Each structure stands twice: as C-alpha cells, then as structure tokens.
Amino acid sequence: MSESETAAATKAAHTREVPESTDYEPLDPEYMTDMVEKFFGPLSRHYFRPRILGIQNLPAEGPAILAANHSGSAFPYDAMVLDSELYRREGCPPHGKCRSVFERTLSATWWMRPFGIDNFWRRGGGVDMTFDNFDRLLAQGHRVLYYPEGVPGIGKGFAKRYQLQRFSSSFVIHAARHNAPVVPIYVINAEWVIPFAFTLAPLDAVLKKLFKIPFLPLPWGLLGVIFPFLWYLALPVRMVFRIGKPVDVAAMVREAGVTDLSNPDRATMRSVAERARSGMQARLDRHVERYGRWPFQWRLLRKHFREAAGKRSLFLPLTWVWKFVRHARDAERPPARNAVHRLLRDWDLFFYYVPLGWFLLSLARRFRKPPCGYRGLSQQERRRREGAFTWHLKDRPLPPRPPAEHVSGT
What we know:
The protein has a seven-stranded mixed β-sheet, with helices on both faces. Strands 7-8 form a two-stranded antiparallel sheet. With 410 residues, it is an alpha/beta fold. It has helices at 3-13, 29-38, 40-48, 77-89, 120-123, 131-139, 151-154, 170-178, 201-211, 220-226, 249-255, 266-291, 298-307, 320-330, 339-344, 357-367, 379-386, 404-408; strands at residues 51-53, 64-68, 99-102, 127-128, 143-146, 182-188, 197-198, 218-219, 240-243. The chain has 18 helices and nine strands. Strand 3 (99-102), helix 5 (120-123) and strand 4 form a beta-alpha-beta unit. It has one domain. It starts with a helix and ends with a helix.
C-alpha cells in the first residue's frame, strides 16, 4: 500500500462515515429470513407469544411512520419481536420490509449490539437514526418503524413502565413534510421482561461518558457486568402489540398554524409532539388496563412448551446468546465437520458464562479470525464489519425501491 493510500485509510477509519458514494444495502434477506423462520421466529412465537391486534390499520405502502412505545428494560426484545413478527406475517418481503431506525449508541460499541453481533440492526433492515436519513426514507416511500421516546424509552426502568417519555419533535416535521400518517403501535407487557430494572441518572451520565453506555439498569445490570449472559435474560411475558388507527399529524401541524415546513418554529413543533404523546399515552393507558393484567399467562406458556417439540431449548434464556451468535457465524462459514467440531470452534462463547467474561470476550474478538473476530483485518475493514460508523443516506443511498406492484407480490 502506498503512503497516500495508507493516509486515506487512516483518515477513513477515524471518521464516522463510509467513504464511498455508492448504493448501500446492508439488509441481508437470507440471514434475516433464516433467523425468523428457524430460530427467532419460533422463540418469539412460543416464548413471548406475541398477539398483534389491529393489523388492518397497518398500511401496505409508505410513506408512513409506525410509532411504538418502548419497554423500560435495557434490552430491546420488544423491538425485535415486533419487527420480526411484522416481517413474518407479511411473507418476509425483502423489498417491502419496514425500515426501523435506531440510535447510533446501539451499534457504536460491540457490547451494546444485541449479543455483540456485528452490524445487527442494519442486517435486519435498520437505518441509522439521523434527521436527514428519516427524511430520505419517507421520501423514498418507506414505512419507518420508529420509537419516538428514543434511548430514554429503553432506559426509563420498570418504575416508569408505560410512562411515555418526551417525544422528539423531528418525526412531527417529517410527517408534515411528506404528509405521512403516523400509525401508533401500543406495546403492552414488554415492561415485564425484566421487572427489576431501575436507573440512576448520575450513574448513567458517568457510564455514558466513560464507556458509551447510555444507562445501566439496577440491580440486574450489575449482575450482567459480572456474568455477560445475564444481560440477555428475559422472562416469558406475552407481548401484546395493538396497532391503532393512523393519526393525521400533518393536519395537527397545519392546525397549529405552521406553514413553513422548511424552517418551522421549534416551540410549535414540540407542542404538537406533546399533543401526539398525550393522545398516545391516554390510549396506551386504556390498552394496558385491558391487556396488561396478566402479563405472563402461565397456562398458555405451558401449552406452548408442550407444542414446541424439538425446540424446547428455546425456553432456556441462558442459551440464547450461544444460539444467536452461532447462527450469525454459521451464515459466513462452512458447516461443522462433526458435533465435536461444532462445539469447539465456538470455544470463546463460553466466556459469556465466566465471571467478568466481557474482558475475555473482547480479547477473543481481537485475536480470532472472522467470523469470530477481527484478526487480519485493517482498522477500516473492522469498522465496516462491525458497523461502527454512522451511515448517512446522502452519501450512500439505498437502492431505488421496486414498483409497488412488485413489492406487494413478493
């Protein structure tokens, strides 16, 4: 490599952008479909037993904003279950999949990614949450799965369950600019996945500054620091997703007297966002009263356990990290030669069950070759693989969407 090429690679490695100005589609339909059909789909159906109501309110085409509330647990199982269930129920159409938008803090460092899987959100169709990206997704006609509470919604803790945090005003602007309906999705019972998660703002501020971790749920999170696999545990709640009727937020903006959408008054936009939040909170309270009285439904769980012949290991959350990571690795490597080889080639996963195993896991990722680690990769190649950069659609746009009739027929 020449001196100029080395300098260019070093500069790119220290920026948040991917340097090329070409189409970029990280969605991996084969990986996503295989995970939904063979692994996470059965786990979701038998363990979390999602109930989706009001599916007729879900638009088949965009632009549209699907706005859901977050549970107060640290791990976003609610988002994963909802995204995969919508994908499965619509027949796994890669070109018509809802595009979720996610905060960069959930992908910037490997311990914040689900099970540490590289580029997890983007491989499942996610797009980095930036103002411009949101605008471009709607302009291209996508349905955007969005959590208006943001990271505070994930880290609000069990004590604030079903209490919607402040909504960002950005989605109000986007809805008005593109005349996109806002379809509320009320997530119920997911708060009980970890009913002993509480947060302290001063501690979270320190962790965010030192380790880029936005919050630490207490006391459960402290146990997860000691034993990594505990970070991914979840109780078998039956999640309910109530899809409400579309809300004409664009009309609310017009009623507020906003005419210049290129430079709207921020105070007015915040007022409209608060009005949307208040309306959603009132309806969420009613749905919680109706569907949230018995979050676990043990009798139904026993029924699913009997029906899940051959897949009962899915009922053991301590095995999930092993299954998730190995599934992701298997998508990039040849089959194991035998049962012993299948077990031993993932020896580093045992560190998830070792006290303070995060350090050992980090070392293993550094010294093992892909798909188990990053040995032999340049810094730029590693960042690409991890997905530890901010993806801006203005620099690397999504490929053009196919015609609507092609999408509906996939």
